């Protein structure tokens, strides 16, 4: 059963992080396994980082749990990657969907593509399709494992390997915190890990189909997300802002 209060003091957590900073990614995931058992799961966006991470997690534990959110607006290529990943690792991916009553009400009141009309509308849609299902998924876990990296910028620059996630009453573990994007790319290639074919078509960062475009050479890696908003500080969907799933 999951524990809903911190099991480590701040001092203990600092010592754990100091040790894990020097450990390999495999060792970090081994620690997750030993500490949280099957109350831990990777919450994956199926981006490049998450695919690399699950490959390692699966190597540590063939029964590692893999969760994702299906917003019902994802690109076809992402749905294909779900199937490829299930085949490769024989994993029973745990899909979380938006509350269908909320989706029906939202679409009835606002329309199908209302998120193009202002940031508040976009955040409302992300709230229904991502943040609420994420909260529902995480409420079942003692720890969630993410593919966040420090050099992705924004709020991610200061992440620890293990953090108490007060918003979800569990621990968030970021085993790839010290990885670079080049490392991730090389690892995926060397290990022939399935990845989203859109990454080869100018989409370094992926999300819902209507809210993601390809980027031009030299553009910021997340410039293709909610591009119409034009605000570089607004490139998070609420998930990583409230304590951090998006590739
Ligand atoms: S990314 Fe776009 S379609 Fe997906 S939940 Fe957010 S606003 Fe809605």
TrEMBL record:
Q: Where in the cell is it found?
A: Cytoplasm
Any one Gene Ontology MF annotation carried by this entry is: adenylyl-sulfate reductase (thioredoxin) activity
Gene Ontology CC terms: cytoplasm
Identify the pathway. Answer: Sulfur metabolism; hydrogen sulfide biosynthesis; sulfite from sulfate
Listed cofactors:
[4Fe-4S] cluster
A Pfam entry, by short name: PAPS_reduct
Q: What is its EC number?
A: 1.8.4.10
Class in the EC hierarchy, top level: oxidoreductase
**The organism's place on the tree of life at top rank:** Bacteria
- Answer whether the UniProt record assigns the keyword Ribonucleoprotein to this protein: no
Q: Which residues form the Phosphoadenosine phosphosulphate reductase domain?
A: 41-214
Q: Which InterPro entries match?
A: PAPS/APS_Rdtase, PAPS_reduct_dom, Rossmann-like_a/b/a_fold
Q: Which GO terms describe its biological process?
A: hydrogen sulfide biosynthetic process; sulfate assimilation, phosphoadenylyl sulfate reduction by phosphoadenylyl-sulfate reductase (thioredoxin)
Q: Provide the residue positions that the database annotates as binding [4Fe-4S] cluster.
A: 125-126, 208, 211
Keyword Iron-sulfur set for record: yes
Supply the alphabetized keyword list.
Cytoplasm, Iron, Iron-sulfur, Metal-binding, Oxidoreductase
Q: Which family does it belong to?
A: Belongs to the PAPS reductase family. CysH subfamily.
Function, in words? Catalyzes the formation of sulfite from adenosine 5'-phosphosulfate (APS) using thioredoxin as an electron donor.
**Protein name per its UniProtKB record:** Adenosine 5'-phosphosulfate reductase
- Species of origin: Candidatus Lucifugimonas marina
Query: Which gene produces this protein?
Result: cysH
